[in-house]
Design brief:
There is one protein chain. By secondary structure, the chain is an alpha+beta fold. The chain is 39% helix and 11% strand. Strands 1, 2, 3, 4 and 5 form a 5-stranded antiparallel β-sheet that branches. Strand 2 and strand 3 form a beta hairpin. Helix 3 packs across helix 4.
Amino acid sequence: MLKNKITLTYIKAQAKKFKRTHNVTYTKALDKIAKEYGYSNWMHCQRSLSQTQSSSSILNVESPVVSPQLSFSDWLKRHKNRNSPLGDLAKDTLRDRQWPENNSLEEYVDYLNSRNAYFAAVDALRSAWKSYKAYLKRSNSPKSKAVKKPRITSQKDDSRTIVYVNGVTPIHFPERNVEVFKPGDKAWISYNTRKALPVTVIEVDDRHYTVRIERPLKVAGDMLYFLLDEVRSTPELACRNYVTL
């Protein structure tokens, strides 16, 4: 009877108490509490309780982040081709058959720590989570639900190619500024300090530019978004303000 009344929120609350009192990771605490309530582990508990969420009014108190429009793992998959720490993290999660479907940054950090992940991976995770939350905020904002703007079609006369730049010194983050673009403007982005890729600005919000990649041709047409200070007007500026995530 008790097992039918518990919720994911209750399990997590008990796990947090256990973590504080026994000085263990959050992941181990979740497994411990889940087993106390008859589940084989936390994943089994999470899966079992989640399946009843739609039919049980008890579980409706869960945070809206539990069932986002796009899960964090699925959001990560979209960035698997990026040549950046975010892309490396996405590829690592795809290779990890035990990668969990968690609802908080703390749970993911504890999972990486339990796998003895490098500090750089944890740092990339924290940055990715911030961008994911920003994505959800944009997706759920009233503005995003308004009538969609017509998508700008590719211009066949865009003959720009990839530009290689030598001797560029990156600009420190506090010194970066933002260039103003509007939909349809041509711009550049760079994943490092040596190569700039031509892009076309598609949409603008208060945090990101959504762009269409023009080169290389194998990914031409892909829609990605970048922080405002990462989209620049020249190849040189793009390399100086290279993509950091």
